[in-house]
Write a structure and sequence with these properties.
Low-confidence stretches: none
Largest sheet: 8 strands, mixed
Number of domains: 1
CATH class: Mainly Beta
CATH topology: Lipocalin
Helix content: under 10%
Oligomer: single chain
Structural class: mainly beta
Number of helices: 3
Distance between the termini: 10 Å
Radius of gyration: 18 Å
Order of helices and strands: HHHEEEEEEEEEE
């Protein structure tokens, strides 16, 4: 996969203002201004080709490291409160497990006993960035909702499916919804952290 060509935004429901931003995209200027990570923010990161390393940082924090752009996302469970400060590329993420529907007549599962369902992540307080590395923008007031599901294939493969929903009235006419798949590996083969880049 390569960086999309300038003006390639047909599948993104952008506003007129977003089109102006995308049409003026200049990767060399982004690099010179120190904004080479604009395409690696939370709203776009899971769409980039690369590998993930997922671990528990502590009992209430799930950590996702990416080799694309060498980024780290932290998913906070419980009643975590975001610290004050400037927005960041990865923003502030609150996580919760969502259980599947319980059949009629069955009691709901106790908290902490959910064994299936998905993981919902809501991320806010993001620095303005790009939905695509070619300058298609999202604003600092954008909200990112993600749904992480595990799929078990018959051949034993395990897939992580990440459905991403980005909303933001400044640059999007309607929610921008995408889905990405990652295949679980047995080891860290191929793990190759690379810095952010606006030019590749």
């Amino acid at each position: 996969m390569v960086t999309p060509a300038k003006g390639d935004y047909l599948s993104v429901p952008i506003t007129v203002e977003a089109k102006k931003v995308a049409d003026s995209w200049d990767p060399a200027k982004e690099e010179a201004a120190g904004n080479q990570c604009k395409g690696y923010g939370a709203a776009a990161l899971m769409r980039l080709p690369g590998r993930l390393h997922i671990t528990w940082q502590d009992d209430q924090t799930l950590r996702v490291d990416t080799d694309a752009g060498t980024q780290t996302r932290l998913f906070h469970f419980g009643d975590w409160k975001a610290p004050a400060g400037e927005p960041t590329w990865q923003g502030d993420s609150v996580a919760q497990w969502e259980s599947p529907r319980v059949p009629r007549g069955m009691p709901p599962p106790e908290p902490g006993q959910i064994k299936s369902g998905d993981l919902k992540i809501t991320t806010t307080h993001m620095r303005a960035g790009f939905l695509r590395k070619n300058g298609v923008p999202y604003s600092a007031d954008a909200v990112l909702n993600e749904y992480y599901d595990i799929i078990h294939e018959r051949n034993g493969d395990q897939l992580l499916v990440v459905t991403t929903v980005v909303t933001g009235p400044m640059y999007l006419q309607q929610p921008f919804i995408t889905s990405s798949q990652f295949k679980k590996q047995a080891d860290a083969t191929g793990w190759a952290p690379t810095p952010c880049s606006s030019t590749w």
